[in-house]
Each structure stands twice: as structure tokens, then as C-alpha cells.
Amino acid sequence: MNPVQLAWKVLRADRRTQVATLLTAAGVAVATALVLLLASLPFATESRAERALWQEPRYELSTGVAPTIAWSFSVDEIDGRQITRVDIAPLTDGDIALPPGIDRLPEPGELLRSPELAALADSRPPAELADRFAAEPVGVLGDEALRFPEQLVVLVGHTPDTMPANALELTAFGTGDPRPDQLLTLLAGVGLVVLLVPSLVLVASASRLIAARRERRLAALRLAGATPAQVTAMVAAETGIAAVAGGALGVAISPLLHRAATTVPWDGGTWFAHDFVLGPGLVAAIAVTVAVLVVGAAVVGLRRVVSTPLMATGGHTRKPLSGWRLLLVPAALALFFWTLSRANTGDGALPILVALGVLMWSPTVVGPWATSALGGIFVRSWRRPAALLAGRRLRDDPKAAYRASAGVVLAAFAGSMALTLMPSLESEAGYYSQFRDEVLYLDTNEDRAGPIAAAVDDKLARYGLDARASRVDQAELVSGDQYHTATIATCADAERLLAGVGDLPCRDTPAIYVDPALDVADAGVPDASTGSAVPLPADAPVVSTDTAGLLLVDPALWPADAPLLEVNVAVPADERTRETVRTALLAGSGGEQVVSKEMKLGQQDTQLADLRRVTVIGLVTASLLAGVSAAIATAGSVMDRRRTFGALMAAGTPVRTLARALRAEAALPALVSTVGAGALGTAVGVGLFGLVSGSPAVFSPWLAAPVVLGALVALIAASVCAPALRRVRAEPLADE
């Protein structure tokens, strides 16, 4: 009889083996489906990037090929949602190749927009959205041209002379190499570790349900003359049946998991269903790899049966764990912070990632020792029989007792690291602008500034608003060997538009307003062509102000043709008029980039929200997997010690006492380990935050999540104790 036939025979005859096989297959299915999902994330972001190539700003090196289009990219905002705008004008009479999803190039004064933007524009007054584009809708963009289904994107047609000032001249439209999202790719890699480990622990826990019975069966076969190869082949076949069935099930349910993933927003929107499609070869490779890992783990676990079958059936004395294990965590932590201290030496991120990997692995070495130490405390200080029984178990087999907690420990570590980083990063969120928060403005050139301001004023008047556009420019002044940045604006505009500027002693005539701490004596505008400075009017009045760092020059005093660093057109707006003012700026400028506080902060808010969402999903999933594996491990522990528990019950030990002991030995290692892993993850989060900021880290109440995680796992594990013991009491010991 070959090993597969023998495995099938055992599976048909033994009910407990059937249960263990089903649970192992379920664990393999979960692991396979999760790996397929996480492996598809980089490809999904690459699909997004490929569809949005025509929207992406890019620069071309000179190739000797004449440009065919003028192209400009900008972003807009409405109700906290980003609008992507592309302005385009043909530079040739020939045909221009169009990207998928764009069936025609809009003529000047025409536009194509996404279905979501079309619905939003039609639902609002034109002054709030539709008028921004100053063009007539002539169609919609197809799904192949959208980054994600809800994307707000518009393609506006122009003539070359009406294009925005920042327009580029390109040789083709929508070409380039798509690149996957680096952040999501990194998170997918972390997720493979954080979620795959609990899944494999679930598989191992399922295998433990029949560990003792399998060892006795295999030991009997060895004593009857079976060779190590035959025993190994039989276990490989027995585990392989579950692994193959689980792998096939995981592949079958992965589309459902992918469908659920399409509803999770990332970078502003959800996903198309076909984004997560993997090639058949990659799917098969992942399924086979997971199955091989499971079978390999089962085969490696046969060392004791193969080498000493009598010891496998008869019990053996385990060597106590060395206290030297405790040194691994501080050593790994010291290595991690040492690599952080060398982050700016040009070694790159690889040493940090390696040190982080060692640190994440260290709790698996220290955890069993801590479990054994906890058991020793119970043995020495017990007051009830349940505490003594739990302590003896934790003391005698700490590796098995800790095994069920391994997955949740890793999740607690990663979660604490993220929950330390995110509040700290949120505290750093913000932006600097010379303008007040309520001001909207755009950056243009000096030739266009005047016409844009006039067109914007005309739009504002048509919309019945009192606000008007003002120019606020930036320039460089030199006084002696000191260089200063000057703001070129009227005193009234400075009070109304500039941040940090309070009441100024404005005069009726043009003047220079300056912080007395700045030395602007004989200040002039540096002229690069002559190496000298063009002086400001000698008779210009200089007024001292209380505004620190202010150097304000009235436009009437600015020398003609003197260079400017920036030219801005700005308009203040309140909450009621904000969208209308934005419309006036966009329509009046022909599509220049309009800047505002909400746009500056929007991308940061979106990214932080994505990280929070991913962290919560990962922690919840890891908690459930770890909890289920802990519950199965607890049930397996009962089955392994069925004779012992049966003898204790026969001797009169109450089931509730045994259940209390099992709850303690299942719950306490998980709770203690997650608290320790949480503290370690917090320390790592503080170190990583120090790479990007010199500010102190921010600690939030969410750092208690690892403790809650450990408690959740403990509750799930403890819930199976009493039912498992009742099953032991109901079955005759002769079955063993």
C-alpha cells in the first residue's frame, strides 16, 4: 500500500483526523487567499498607474522628434475631493495617438470628463464647479482612462496660445512606464509577514489536534519495521491531502477576497475588479509554495518520531530553556537603533530593514522563556489547584504553550509600531504659506498676471461677489552682503492676504514696511547681468512695523523691469464663497494651478487615513486568525493530554477546575506576550519617527490596542476549554 492510500485509509477511519484535516485545509485556504491578495496589490497599483499615464506630469529629454502636443497638469478640489485636470493643445495637424478610454481629442473650448465628475457638476450650480473649465462637455472618459472608478478628472482642449503658463511640449500623449505604489507595495510586504504567520500558526494548531495520536501511530509503524522514508512519505501524503485541498479552496475564494478589497479606498478612491487579477502561473506558484511550506513543516516535525520512536510514545524530559534567550531582545533593539544612527551615512535602508527583521523575530525566541518563567511563578505561588495545573503545563512545555500566541505577538508588534508612527506623523502634518488660510491663490508669470487678475475680477463681479483679485509678488533685495526676500504688495493687500501680518501703520502714499531688526539701508535689486544692484527710490519712506521678518515694498516703488521670484494672484474667500472664488480663479486663468489650505492638507489627510485604515484591517484580521489558532491550539492541547485529563476526572477533579487551568495556560501567555510586543513596537515606532522629524513622538490611547488584542485572543482561546473537556469526559479512554 503506497503512502497516499494509507493516508486516505487513516482519514476515512479516524474522525479526529478528519476534523484536523478539515481545519488544516481551512488554514491553508486562508493563507493562500491572503497571500494571493497581498501579492496582487503591487500589480493593482501598477494597473492604476498605467491607466493614468496620460494624467501624470513628466519631462522629456530632447530626442530630435518634434513635439506634437502642449500639455499641462493641475489639481483642483471640491468638498475635500481632488479633481485632476489636464489641459491639452495639438501642435501638429497630424493624427495624435490617444490613450485607451479617450475616444477623441477635445477641440478648443471642449472638454471630456469622468462620469463621476459629470454627475457632480450637473448636481451643483455652474458657478461652483462647471464654470471652472470654461469649456463645453462633449463626452465622457472611459474606465480605461481613470485611475479608480470615482476619480474626478477632466481633459480640456485649448489652442497653443491659451495654454497655462506651465505647459510642456511633448512628443506623444499618455506614454511612459507605469510604476507600482511604493508605499502600498511596502505595506503588502509587511502584511505578508503579519498575516501569513498567524495563518501558518493556524495550520500548525490544527495539526496539533492529532499530534499525540499521530506520533503513537507512526512510532508503532517504525517499531514494526517501517523505514524513516516510509514514515515521512506517509505524513507528507496525509498533510498533502489537506494542503492541496486547502490551496485549491484558497484559489477558489480569492476572487471573493479581491472583490471585497476593491471597496477599500487607497489614495483617494477604490479599485476596479480587474486590478487584482493575477496570471495563472503566479497563482499556481503561490498555491504550490504555501502547500509545500505546510508539508515541509509537517515533515520537519517528525524528527523525534523518526530518530527515537520509543521516546515519542513514552514521553521524554525536556531541557530547560536558557536564560541567555533574554539577551536577544536588547541586543536586537541595540542593533536596530545603531542602524538608525547610521541612516545618513549612505548605507541605504537595507541595514535598517534587516535589523527590523531581527527585532521582529526576537520575541519568538524570548516568548517561550517568558512563558516558562510565568509557569514557574504559578507553581511556586499557587493557591488553587487550577493555578498549579496551569503552571506545570507552562513550565513543562513552554514552546507549545507559546506557539498559539506567536501570530498575535507579531501583529501586536507591527500594530504598536504603526499606532506610534501615525499620531506622530499627524502632529507633523501641515504646510507653510505666506498667505492666510482663507486665501486662494495661483502662481503665474508677470505677462499673464495682469490679464488673469482682470479676468478673475470680471468673473467675481458676474457671480455677485465683492472680493477682488490682488497681485502679491516675491523678489530678492540685497543690502551690503545681506540678502532678503521682499514681498511686493500694497499695505492694504498685505493686511488682508498675508499670514502673520497684523495691523500695519499703512500710509496713503507708497512706502516700504520693514521689521526694524532687518538692515535694509541702501537696499537694491541684484542684477545678475551687471553684478550690481538696482536701488529702490532714495526718497521712499521706510516705516517700522511690529511684524517679525516683514519686508514689504509697495509696487509703485519697485523698479521697472526688475526681476521677480514669484508672481501670485490671490483672492480671499470665506466658507460661503470658497467654491465660487475658486471657480473664478480657474476660469479667469485658463487652468492655472490654484492653491489653498485644504488642497495642501488634503493629500496628507488622505495618506494618513489610508494608513489608519490598513492598520485597523491588518490588526483585526491578525487578531481573528490568532484567536482561532489559539482556540484550536487549546483544543489540541486537551486532545494531546486526553489520558491525563481522563485520569484526573476519574480521580474526582471537577471539570471546572481543569477548564480554569486551561483558560489560564491559554490566556496568560497571549496577554503577557502582546504587552511586551506592544512595548517593543512602540520603541521601534519612536526610532523610525526620529528619522523624519526632530520633534518628540506623540502617544495616543490607541497604544492600548495590543493589550486589547491579547485579551481578545485569550477570550477566544478560553472559550473552547470547557467544550473540549466535556468531549474528553464523554469519550471512552479505550479509544486511545
Summed up, what is this model?
This is ABC transporter permease. The chain is of the alpha+beta class.
Describe the 3D structure.
The chain crosses the membrane at residues 21-44, 183-210, 231-257, 277-302, 323-340, 352-379, 400-422, 616-639, 666-691, 703-725. Pfam families: FtsX. This is ABC transporter permease. InterPro entries: ABC3_permease_C. Its main location: membrane. The chain has 736 residues and is α+β, with helices and mostly antiparallel strands. The protein has four domains: 1-57 and 179-316, no CATH class; 59-170, no CATH class; 319-432 and 598-736, no CATH class; 439-597, no CATH class. It is 54% helix and 12% strand. The protein contains 22 helices and 16 strands. The protein has helices at 3-13, 15-51, 115-122, 182-207, 211-223, 228-261, 280-300, 303-307, 309-314, 328-341, 350-381, 385-396, 398-403, 406-428, 446-462, 491-497, 578-589, 597-640, 642-650, 655-692, 705-718, 721-730, and strands at residues 69-78, 81-90, 110-113, 136-140, 152-157, 168-170, 439-444, 470-479, 482-488, 512-514, 524-526, 533-535, 542-544, 551-553, 566-572, 594-595. The chain has an eight-stranded mixed sheet. Helix 4 (182-207) runs parallel beside helix 18 (597-640) and helix 14 runs antiparallel to helix 18 (597-640). The radius of gyration is 35 Å and the shape is elongated. The two termini are 24 Å apart. The mean pLDDT is 84.
Mean pLDDT across residues: 84
From the alpha carbons, calculate the radius of gyration and give it in angstroms.
Answer: 35 Å
Which structural category do the helix and sheet elements fall into? alpha+beta
Low-pLDDT stretches: none
The main sheet comes to: 8 strands, mixed
User: What best-fitting shape do the alpha-carbon axes yield?
Assistant: elongated
Q: Strand tally, please? A: 16
Q: Total helix count?
A: 22
Overall helicity: 40-55%
| Number of separate structural domains | 4
Strand order of the largest sheet: 13-10-14-9-8-15-7-16
How much of the sequence lies in strands comes to: 5-15%
In whole angstroms, the N-to-C terminal distance is 24 Å
Transmembrane segments: 21-44, 183-210, 231-257, 277-302, 323-340, 352-379, 400-422, 616-639, 666-691, 703-725
Keywords: Cell membrane, Membrane, Transmembrane, Transmembrane helix
Main location: membrane
Protein name: ABC transporter permease
